C-alpha cells in the first residue's frame, strides 16, 4: 500500500483550498446582488468592531511608551468619598525617603507660563517635575540633556526642557535651540533639552517642563510641606516587588505621616493612600465605557452574522440540486462543508477588507468627536495589532455565519431535494426553523441594543433639562493668568483686574462683567473650613469645601439670585473685615433652621474667621450631572490670585465682543495673553460631550441593528411563504379568505418578534442587575431598570415587526391557487 508523503498531503491541501477559493469566487460572481448585500452587511459589523478595538487597543491594551512600563505606579491620597486629593510635599518627601518598594520616584505639578518674545505672547501649559522625572521613565531628550538635581533646588538655575511640538511651532525645529533663553512670566530660562514626540497622559499636554516642582516665591517652606496639596507622584517598582506589596508599605508610611503631621490635610482619618498601576490610573475613567461599547458592537456583528446566515439559507434553496448532484457523484460530506465554509470565509474576508477601509474613516471620526473623553496624549492609530484583529474577526465571522447553512446543505441528497421542491420536506422545514431561530436572535440582540440606547437617550434628555442655577445665554469667558514676577503681590493683581473690569464694562454691548477664579460648573479650589457651631477639630479633619474668589458683580453677571443678605461690594477690599457668601446647600448643611447671616467660618489656615454676609441661590458647581456641593464665595480683593477668568454678559452674540475685549487687555499689557475663550453655553456643551458621545454611538449601533433585524424578519417570512406556496394555494383553493392568509403570515412574524423581544428584555434585565453599579455611573437621574425604556422599547419593536411582516404576508395573499398547485 502506497503511503502519501507529508509534503504531498500539504500540496494536495493547498490545491484543494485553491480550487475551493476559485469555485467560491465564481459563485459570488454568478450572484453579485447576494455578494454585495452580504459584504456590506458584514462590513458594517466588522468595521464597527475594528474601529472600537482600535481605540480600546490604544487606550487599554497598548503599553505606555516608557521603559518597562509595567513597573510604573501612581501614588495618591484619596478621601473615602472617592474625591481625589493631590499629595502634599511633606507626604511625597516622606514616601520617597523611607520606602523600600521603589527604585525611583518623581513628583509633578501642572502650571502655566506666559511665553513672550520671538512671536505673539501666548500662554503655555507647563509641568513642574522633580529633576529625576525623565530618567525614572526612561525618556531621553532628542536634543540636549535631562535635568540635574541641583536645578530643582531654590538656588538652582532657571532651566527648562521644551516639547517637540513647541520646538517645531515656535523655533522651527532649530537644531541649535539648546542653550537659548526663553522668556517665561518675565523671567529668562535656559533651554537645556528638547523632548522626543512622547506623550505623558498622566500629567498634561505640556510644552514647558521645569525642575522647580513647587514655586518657592509663593509658599513658605512649612506651607509647602504641610498645606499645598497639588502634587502628583509616580514611582518605579523594584524588581520582584508587586503593586500590592508597595501599597502595604505606603499605607504603613501614611500612618507614620499621620503621627508626625497631625495637622496636614492629607493626614485626615478620612484619607487613605493609594498605589495603582500607572496605565490603570490613566484609563480608569474610560475603561467601563470602552468595554460596554465593545460589547455592544460585538452584538451588532452577531446580528450581521445572523442576517447573512439567513441570506445563505435562502440562497441554499437554489443550490440544493447542485449539492445533491455533487453528493450523488461521490463528494464527501466533509468536502462539501469545507467548500461551503471556504465560500463563507471568502465572503467575510472581502467584507473585512471593506470594513478595514471603514475603520480608518470611523476611527478618525471617533477620535475627533471623543478627544475630550479619552486620555490625552495617547496616539490612536490602525497598527499591526488592529490588522491582526481584523483578520481573526473576519475568519471567525465567516465560520460563525457559514456553519449552519453549510451543515444544512451538506445533508442534501437528490431524493430530499425532489421532496423539498414538491410538497415540502423535513429539510425544507428545518431550514425554515433555522431561519426563524436566526430571526429571534437578531430581534433579541437588537432589543438589547435598543434598551441600552434608550437608557442613554433618557439620561441625556434629563441632563439637557437640568437647571444649572444660572443663565448661560450671552455670557463669554476667557482666562487671564498673570506672570508672578511682573504681578508679584496682591496689590498689583487687584489693580490689573480692577482696570480690566472698568475697561470691559464700559464697552458698548457689555451688560455686566466680573472676574472669578473658577469657571461655571468647574470648581477651581477646595479647602478645609470650620463653620460656626461645629466642633473644634484639627485642620485635617475639617470638611473640604469649594471656595471661589470673585469680583463684586459675579452673581449679578451670572444671574444667580442672592436669597439672603447682600452681594459683595467694592467696599469689601483688602482692608475691610473678612466676609463671605455661602450657597444654600452650605447654609442647609451647617445651619439648618438658623439664619446664616452673621455666622462665621474659618477658612483654611486663616487666623480670623470670615463673616457670612449673604446666601446665594444654589448653582451647579461640579458639573451638570453631579449634585450641588456646599460652596463659599470670597471677595477677590481679600484673597488675590494671579489666574482669573473674565466673565462678560453681553447684549448680543458674545463672539462679537472677543476682539474688543482682547484690545482692551492688550492696551494694558501687550505681553499678556488671553486663553480659553469660550461662551458658557459652549462650556456646558463640553460637559455633556461624554454622555452625548456614548448616546450617539449606541443609538447608531441600535438603528443599524434594528434595520438588519427588520431585513432578517422580512427575509425569513418571504422564505417561509415560498416554502409554503403550495399549502397557501390549497388553502385559497378551499375557500380561505385572503385576510385569513394575511393574518396567518403576520402572526408568524409577530410571534418571532415577541419571542425575540422576551429573550432580549430578559437578558437586558439580567445585565442591568449584574452590572448595576457600572451602568449607573453612565446614567443621570434614571434607574438602570427605567420602566419607560423597558416598556416602550418592546412595544415599539412589536409595531416594527408587524410592519415588516405585512409585506411578505401581502405577497402570500397574491398566490394564485392554480399556479401554486401546478407548481407543486
User: What is the averaged pLDDT score?
Assistant: 83
> What class would the helix/strand composition place it in?
alpha+beta
Span between termini: 52 Å
Rounded to an integer in angstroms, the radius of gyration calculated over CA atoms is 34 Å
Short structural summary:
By secondary structure, the chain is an alpha+beta fold.
Plain-language structure description:
The chain has 824 residues and is of the alpha+beta class. 51% of the residues lie in helices and 16% in strands. The protein has 24 helices and 22 strands. The strands form 3 sheets. Strands 3-4-9-6-8-7 form a 6-stranded mixed barrel. Strands 14-15-20-17-19-18 form a 6-stranded mixed beta barrel. Strands 13-21-12-22 form a 4-stranded antiparallel beta sheet. A hairpin with a 5-residue loop joins strand 3 and strand 4.
